[in-house]
Amino acid sequence: MPGFPPLIDQHCHGVLRSGPSHAAFETYLTEADVPPPTAPPPHAGGPPPPRGVPPYDGALLTGGPPPYPGAPPTSAYPGVPAASAHSPAPGTTGPSVSYFDTQLGFALRRWCAPVLDLAPHCPPEEYLERRTELGTAEVTRRMLRASGISTFLVDTGLPGPLLTPGELAEAADGEAHEVVRLERLAERAADVARDTHTFLAELSDGVRESVRTARGFKSVVAYRIGLDFDPGPPGTSEIYSAAERWLDSRVPGGRLSDPVLLRHLLWSAVRTGLPLQLHTGFGDPDLRLDRCDPLLLTDFIRATAPYGTPLVLLHCYPYHRGAGYLAAVFPHVYADFGLSLSHTGARARDVLGELLELAPFGKLLFSTDAYGLPELYVVGARLFREAMTELTQGWTRREEWSHKDAERVTAMLANGTAARLYGL
Amino acid sequence: MPGFPPLIDQHCHGVLRSGPSHAAFETYLTEADVPPPTAPPPHAGGPPPPRGVPPYDGALLTGGPPPYPGAPPTSAYPGVPAASAHSPAPGTTGPSVSYFDTQLGFALRRWCAPVLDLAPHCPPEEYLERRTELGTAEVTRRMLRASGISTFLVDTGLPGPLLTPGELAEAADGEAHEVVRLERLAERAADVARDTHTFLAELSDGVRESVRTARGFKSVVAYRIGLDFDPGPPGTSEIYSAAERWLDSRVPGGRLSDPVLLRHLLWSAVRTGLPLQLHTGFGDPDLRLDRCDPLLLTDFIRATAPYGTPLVLLHCYPYHRGAGYLAAVFPHVYADFGLSLSHTGARARDVLGELLELAPFGKLLFSTDAYGLPELYVVGARLFREAMTELTQGWTRREEWSHKDAERVTAMLANGTAARLYGL
Amino acid sequence: MPGFPPLIDQHCHGVLRSGPSHAAFETYLTEADVPPPTAPPPHAGGPPPPRGVPPYDGALLTGGPPPYPGAPPTSAYPGVPAASAHSPAPGTTGPSVSYFDTQLGFALRRWCAPVLDLAPHCPPEEYLERRTELGTAEVTRRMLRASGISTFLVDTGLPGPLLTPGELAEAADGEAHEVVRLERLAERAADVARDTHTFLAELSDGVRESVRTARGFKSVVAYRIGLDFDPGPPGTSEIYSAAERWLDSRVPGGRLSDPVLLRHLLWSAVRTGLPLQLHTGFGDPDLRLDRCDPLLLTDFIRATAPYGTPLVLLHCYPYHRGAGYLAAVFPHVYADFGLSLSHTGARARDVLGELLELAPFGKLLFSTDAYGLPELYVVGARLFREAMTELTQGWTRREEWSHKDAERVTAMLANGTAARLYGL
């Protein structure tokens, strides 16, 4: 990809200090929070029904001997041979579904194997062995330098033994800046606050301090309550009451999911003028995807418009066309396509093409949303470069775009808009 | 398509024993439940306004002579020449809109004409004549054997003079298994039940018996109440009351649309461990498409996760990307793409491509959703084979996928995952 | 594009009588209603917070010196150097985001520059200079005649110094007919009505008169209250009360957004049998896109079905697949793709392809939705011709469609269905 402009990764996370183990590696290739269906089926002596869901008592309805006794469900069909009772769900026993068998898994084997001196698409086992052989530090260094990313904006709000932005920059021979996760800020403040008063003061200080130290804010309100929240800023007494309530009921380390406090955080960030990144679209199963449609933010977007604070919609998939619309009609709205390219692999150009429909080209930003594995920087960067190159080549070949425009727009997405937006 | 693996059709219906007539043939090419707009416009002496909608009385508002008298609406514009009063809706009179003029209609003429020794894309009339000449049995035999499908999972819950699974298997020289439609089970039980008690007992017996005789369950709860139903299992007394209410008010042959009983059916099925197929996405106008977004099932999916029972989302279009997400993050969720390919014809590879974005490859299943016409097996199978071949050829040509992976994933979709899931 | 059939533009608006200025030209390339982010950030002495949103009072929460004083927000961070306080939102100061840098802007420079004797993709400045040099009348004449459009259906409900349908027809050497915007009809009636009684009489007369003078109705109910309105017709006394309430509270020139009156308009139009165009999908930021999903019209569509009055869903993007479904299952539903192609430019064939999935081919209509700039006729027409040609060439090359069918369907979309529907 000669001549492709250097990349600013406007949204990523740290990489692991060591490991992961072969078994854990695969879990970084998915947004699922549990292993793929390889375990024996739960009704073969597996876990009980979910908490809060009583064993289903259809039995009582027959008047005869209970056809559906309580757990374990295997015994539900006394007359049915065990083999047959099992066969219904062989999907949970047979050859496993592997998270390597995804577009992300295939893209990783394609683009990252050569960075470790292996053939593209080599088997996962071979890849993982070579990874162990080289060691985490060397793999990280190789991947980061092969990614073509010069600047990293790191959301430091994820837990785990991750490289700091400074360490990341060093490994990459690049530059790194912090993006502060609002909810984490509040949760940290709650961890140390003596009372409501000091909690809220701590929060204010944290937001203010972030303006000095960070390049933007990030919110995962989508995960906590969805995006259809009350769009206006909460009032002072509301905030006090909510803070009191939350602190009283919070278990140590507990997550913030109080709507009033979440809105207080958002509005505090909006008031600073720093770009505010908002998770939208798909993520792990902790969220309800249909409540993460960025269009649900419309009233919040309208309410914040007079402040001019840039709102950067992250990920967006599968609602990226709606995100493109928002970027088109609201001057302060931008859209990112990080996770959406990494996870769609060979389909990345189709997804990027859809984002390049309504959105003004100066409103779109590259990112990787990489987390844990340094491979994810390489995958995100390569997929974007390939997708953008192929899309624009098609358009210039058909004379729909000029070559000069193609170059100019590519530079905007790669780094231009991010540089402008984050003052880099 | 040499070397393409044999297909397991994981969701289909029977084919007609005889016919259909030329006129009726077309109705099998659409999800509409009425003919295309060929009839004279209703206000030229057509049907009265819909039941429950009173003739519109804007007339009363003018104080002058009624501009909008009651039905028939043709007379609404006394001062307007009849020709002009008609011309507004010539779409309902002029050359008809034909359901042959759809992607499905074009695909059928392309792929099925040669099976009847005709040229691809021959005119519909020619096709229908040849069909009559050969006779239903011969057409059925030819189509089924040309389809490349070796195994059929037949939802036996649709009415009509259809071949049984056994007859289908014989005509196809293949294998057929039953999938039990839950709502039909309840409706049949209601047809014969003496009282609430025997109804519920019959229902329990039916579910239990199905585990012995069938490979899975199917639910059309999407049609009856949409997918945003209360996710948990109903309690015993709730079920009793609902059953009593329904049986009391039911006209013979009446459909089940009671939410409590529908949920009771779903949870009864989940408890068995047999794969449960759920209609999602588009279908006939009986449903509200926006209430059939599979994402509306998220809480039900969460509630059922501990059981491990596979949930297979059918059709999904145009919400197939959301279905792919669910398949990606919930181990027990699978997605099917039957109807979505058949009805999009020349666009099938684009639709399949979108499903191949987030969904792990081991979570996707081929089907035809064929119903009535044996042609629909050929169309569904050919479109899948063409689409999958073309997609993967594009990806291997660009080196995004390896050839070996392409073959492996094709086999998963064609039959591997279905074999595993249904114990075939 | 030799041999491409002449076009009927089934939905457009007038073009400007003069101008626009260079600065204003760009605003016609976007659905945004404000300039792109070029102004200094509002918190550098810009506008106050939005009306109704009090200055955010997080300050009160700290107990210390207010970290977030009232407006102007620049002073919010006394300890932070001004440069840094600014740098957060450099996006609102630096090189501007231009609405020329959009798919529509690129398509305009490609297709319209040659009409003005310039090279495709010439710089915007050069284009605008040449435009001024030639003068509005000449540019208009050239564009309209280059567009390949023979007949224009003009929604006359937009304000501004626009050419009348007659003038448009003359400049284009074509034919033009009126489409009456229902809400404008009501607003005009309200402007002159003495009382509720005369208002409603005027409204009835207006609808009746339109049947004589116009080819269809148009509604922007999507903008006013969204598409999830009560589907049935309102009763007489309801209408009277609503009219009284609205007239009493209305400021001169005020828009109609009363749900009862909006529904009264829709049902009055449905009763006439004239095709009724409904805005759906994207538009300017006045609407909430998620409330403009055409599927929200499902119950209204069902309720109006017995009348047979054609309902034409306009634009539809990004919900065009749902629109295709509605066109497939409801005989009186049609879909238009005007705005959706113009604004997606090089991606138009992908968007059109998606609409050509479920919708019967006899249910789709070409339009440009051109407004203000005569260039938008050229862009809309060329993008459709290119997209349709390329799509069908791809399908015939793969033998998925026959050449004859491709020609036939192209003619349907270009003019056949519109001619039939509007009696042209």
UniProtKB/TrEMBL annotation, chains A, B, C:
Source organism superkingdom: Bacteria
Composition-biased stretches (Pro residues): 34-53
Residue ranges of the region described as Disordered: 32-94
Comp. bias regions, Low complexity: 54-63
Pfam families assigned to the protein according to its UniProt record, in alphabetical order: Amidohydro_2 (PF04909)
InterPro entries: Amidohydro-rel (IPR006680), Metal_Hydrolase (IPR032466)
Residue span(s) of domain Amidohydrolase-related: 248-424
Protein name: Amidohydrolase family protein
Organism encoding this protein: Streptomyces axinellae
